[in-house]
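We were asked to recover a plausible sequence for a given structure. The inputs and outputs are reproduced exactly as logged, with field labels preserved.

PROBLEM: sequence recovery
POSITIONS: 472
GIVEN STRUCTURE:
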């Protein structure tokens, strides 16, 4: 692997050049799988990066010519003995900071990875090591007459994380604003994965309003308009999911409808499939199983040309959940078979970025919910156990969800001691996770276990659940 040579050119004058060296490091992993490996490596050394398939793609395309310091530390940890140059990156001084400004005649380079050295010490000592942080800051600072809408300090439970500021107002949007919208979606998803929706939902509405203001302001380029439509729609779905998980079903339905309308206006089948996917999930949770089936089928129709088998697998599971709610065992089993068949094809580069949560654990967890709805408690327990065992530690909310699901299924399977033990584990996770859905599930478990208070561990679970349920 050779290092790039030759004189440094001004950062803003260098066209994007594919980073073939970094592509070789990815090997046979898909971008999504490699991104997951990056996140795992970051946790091993105490870093926090929001790497996803899109970030990997931008690095390989040469759009990100030099990683920020957090990513550099992670990559050095993953590939000991290799320098950033060996990985295909440009020297930092030609891309970032004073050196780059000197090359570019003191003008800020119009690059997505611009770095301001005056803030580096703060970022290096902070836990907020996100890609494109420089773009977000620049978009916020150069707003001019545009209204700056930020939600810093968004994260619950004393976390230092926050969702970035976005611009609203009347000026036309550019690539920096589109990147800010996309990054807001990513950060909200990361916070939700770790902490659940409560404490996030109300403030997450601010960047959503700003994103739609950017759409109203218009753009000079169609490519930016397309990114803004997709980003605003994904943001609407993310905020809708926060409402859904917080038990605000009416708000969630409104946000999903907004995303669907955005998808139809933009002619974006990927966004349409995502909006229908979440609508199906909401309909199931809200006790409208027939609507869940119709929405899941509409999602599959929108997704049929998107080349993502994993997406079709998840959408088949959404349909299965609706059939289970209707008590239609045959319909449910047929949809589950399709879900497994599509899932067996494995991940691919065509899988949407938002599907990072969907793996073996989620497949097992959603199937457990289907069997539970059909009254097959034994099979539900089997799959719920598998979901808890397989879940990536990053998805704290989902671990709590699957553990609560397991507790409820065990309570319905005449295993009160095991149900109480699982319920206690789920309650402990609620110290980190805020989710009305999970609390509702645990309330159902507590109700089922009250007649068996004398069984081992049940009294302890009931007492702790009662304490946790008291208003703060």
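RECOVERED SEQUENCE:
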């Amino acid at each position: 692997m050779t290092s790039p040579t030759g004189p440094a050119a001004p950062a803003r004058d260098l066209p994007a050049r594919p980073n073939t060296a970094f592509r070789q490091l990815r090997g046979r992993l898909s971008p999504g799988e490699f991104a997951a490996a990056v996140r795992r490596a970051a946790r091993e050394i105490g870093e926090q990066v929001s790497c996803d398939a899109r970030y990997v793609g931008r690095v390989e395309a040469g759009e990100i010519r030099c990683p920020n310091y957090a990513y550099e530390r992670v990559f050095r940890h993953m590939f000991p003995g290799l320098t950033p140059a060996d990985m295909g990156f440009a020297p930092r001084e030609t891309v970032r900071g004073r050196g780059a400004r000197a090359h570019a005649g003191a003008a800020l380079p119009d690059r997505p990875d611009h770095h301001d050295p005056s803030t580096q010490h703060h970022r290096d000592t902070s836990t907020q090591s996100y890609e494109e942080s420089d773009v977000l800051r620049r978009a916020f600072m150069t707003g001019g007459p545009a209204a700056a809408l930020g939600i810093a300090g968004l994260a619950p439970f004393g976390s230092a994380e926050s969702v970035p500021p976005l611009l609203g107002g009347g000026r036309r949007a550019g690539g920096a604003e589109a990147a800010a919208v996309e990054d807001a979606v990513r950060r909200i998803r990361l916070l939700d994965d770790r902490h659940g929706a409560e404490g996030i939902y109300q403030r997450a509405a601010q960047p959503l309003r700003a994103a739609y203001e950017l759409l109203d302001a218009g753009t000079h380029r169609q490519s930016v308009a397309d990114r803004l439509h997709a980003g605003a729609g994904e943001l609407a779905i993310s905020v809708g999911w926060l409402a859904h998980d917080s038990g605000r079903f009416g708000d969630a339905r409104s946000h999903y409808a907004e995303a669907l309308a955005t998808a139809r206006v933009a002619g974006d089948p990927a966004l349409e499939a995502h909006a229908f996917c979440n609508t199906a999930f909401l309909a199931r949770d809200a006790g409208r199983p027939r609507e869940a089936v119709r929405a899941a089928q509409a999602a599959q129709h929108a997704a049929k040309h998107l080349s993502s088998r994993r997406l079709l697998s998840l959408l088949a599971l959404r349909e299965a959940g609706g059939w289970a709610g209707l008590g239609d065992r045959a319909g449910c089993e047929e949809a589950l078979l399709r879900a497994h068949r599509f899932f067996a094809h494995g991940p691919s580069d065509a899988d949407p970025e938002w599907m990072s949560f969907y793996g073996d654990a989620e497949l097992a967890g959603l199937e457990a919910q289907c069997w539970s709805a059909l009254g097959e408690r034994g099979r539900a327990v089997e799959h719920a156990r598998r979901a808890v065992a397989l879940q990536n530690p990053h998805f704290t909310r989902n671990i709590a969800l699957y553990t609560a699901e397991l507790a409820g299924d065990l309570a319905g399977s005449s295993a009160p001691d095991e149900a109480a033990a699982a319920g206690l584990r789920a309650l402990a996770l609620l110290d980190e996770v805020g989710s009305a859905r999970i609390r509702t599930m645990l309330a159902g478990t507590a109700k089922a276990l009250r007649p068996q208070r004398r069984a081992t561990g049940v009294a302890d679970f009931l007492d702790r659940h009662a304490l946790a349920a008291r208003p703060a």
